[in-house]
Amino acid sequence: MKIPSLQSILPNPKKDGGREYSKVLFARKLVMPVSLGLEADVNSRPAKQALGVARSKLRNVACMGATSPHTITFSKKAQDLKEWTHVKTQLLEMTAVEPRNVDGEMCEMDVQLKDLATALSNVQLSVAGRPPLQLELAQGPRGQVWQCIWEKGPNVSFPLEAALSFDYVSPMDSQKWCVTNGKCKVFDPELPPSACCAVL
Predict the structure, then answer these.
(1) Contact at 8 Å (CB) between 123 and 164?
(2) Of 11, 65, 126, 174, which one is least surrounded by beta carbons within 10 A?
(3) Between 96 and 141, whose confidence is greater?
């Protein structure tokens, strides 16, 4: 059995624009695998692991749950403190700890993150060992913030140990990093400033 040559299979460049067709054919074969490979490499690149949370600022206010998320304004009467059932937690400030090579030695570097609404993603909060809650973007006192609403539960004594997990883009190298179970605390909900009473 005679095996056909490669030239006999390819279009004839002298007929019906065969030369133009063959150029496009080989261009697609060369360009497409390269572009797809680069795109897949960027999307599949794993996040670097940060060491934890150096500092964080959480705003905790009382409310009556997701169906009634308006902030409760406390009076000075002690009995008023028992009327709320849920806590609305908003993430306002964050400083992560990253391992960095400085002058040939590995060290821990505090990296302040700004514009958290865009810099962070996949933000989760676990309070007192409970299953993690997914934070969502909501309107805060000074723009969009990451927020979740969780049930206080009976016999809760503040402050509560908590843990934050999230992905972020580091301002140090513009690379994707992640924090897993960074330690923080949830303090007793306090009377918010008057400008914050309409937070949803």
Answers:
(1) yes
(2) 174
(3) 96
* Count of Cβ atoms closer than 10 Å to residue 99 Cβ: 12
3-class SS of residue 112? strand
Q: Give the pair of three-digit tokens for residue 102.
A: 């400085």
Give the start-to-end residue ranges of the domains of the chain. Answer: 11-44, 48-193
173 or 25, which is more confident: 173
Rounded to whole angstroms, how far apart are CA atoms 72 and 58?
17
Structure-block tokens of residue 53: 């949370």
Pairwise CA distance, residues 91 & 143, whole Å: 12
Which residue stretches of the chain are H helix? 6-9, 18-44, 116-119
In the structure, what pLDDT confidence band is assigned to residue 190 with cuts at 50, 70 and 90?
A: low
How far is the CA of 31 from the CAs of 34, 39, 174, in angstroms?
A: 5, 13, 28
> How crowded is residue 177: how many other Cβ atoms within 10 Å of its Cβ?
19
